[in-house]
Amino acid sequence: DTGVSQDPRHKITKRGQNVTFRCDPISEHNRLYWYRQTLGQGPEFLTYFQNEAQLEKSRLLSDRFSAERPKGSFSTLEIQRTEQGDSAMYLCASSPEGQETQYFGPGTRLLVL
Amino acid sequence: AQSVTQLGSHVSVSEGALVLLRCNYSSSVPPYLFWYVQYPNQGLQLLLKYTTGATLVKGINGFEAEFKKSETSFHLTKPSAHMSDAAEYFCAVSPFGNEKLTFGTGTRLTIIP
Question: What is the least distance, in Å, from the CA of B94 to any CA of chain A?
Answer without folding.
Answer: 9
